[in-house]
Amino acid sequence: MIALLLYRTIADHVLPRIASWAVTFAARMLARGLNMPEPLVHSTGDYVVAQVTAFEHSVGRSLFPILSRLLRAWWRGLH
């Protein structure tokens, strides 16, 4: 999931018009296939991304506590 977020971020910066068109088209097709309004597809997607990211962080923190501390220290150093 994190890789998907990275790819989408890179695509938004490198090819903003093509990436935004592709995301809009994909959301429209998914909404049409699920027979849902398009804004509901967007908000549901945002919710799913937030839940998966939170789960990945909690699992990563519990499985790799030393690595987690190092990454948080590195992230704080950047800001």
Brief synopsis:
With 79 residues, the chain is mostly helical. It is 91% helix and 0% strand. It has one domain (2-78).
Low-confidence stretches: none
Helix content estimate: over 70%
What is the structural class? mainly alpha
| Helix count, DSSP H or I runs of 4 or more residues | 4
> Proportion of β residues?
under 5%
Describe the structure.
The protein is an all-alpha fold. The protein has one domain (2-78). It contains four helices and no strands. The longest helix has 26 residues, at 38-63. It is flat, with a radius of gyration of 16 Å. The model has no long low-confidence stretch (mean pLDDT 77).
Topology:
Layout: H1 2-14, H2 16-34, H3 38-63, H4 65-78
Keywords for this entry:
flat
